[in-house]
Amino acid sequence: MATLEELTERIRAAVAAGEGLDKTIKLDLKGEGFIHVDGANVVNEDRPADLTVSISRKDLVAMGKRELDPMKAIMTGRLKMSNMGLALSLQPKIQALFSKMA
Prior knowledge:
By secondary structure, the chain is of the alpha+beta class. The protein has four helices and five strands, in the order αββββααβα.
């Protein structure tokens, strides 16, 4: 399974390739660290963000590989979002970003 550093590098590469977001997003990997995305700036710091996504590293990788359905993850509590409305509006961009982590 990919390490936090590998996931961070994959996200950096994705945003550098134009998969950036127009809002800040923080991935809270449930005790395994953080990935904060602000435009092209991607760091492993617990910074404030427009949207916080709480998910385990294992589930994040599974979502990127399309082995875990996002709706199922939400319904079972494996995926939590701080602002569901914002998450839905960013869904295509978030999906594209997550797919780069597979």
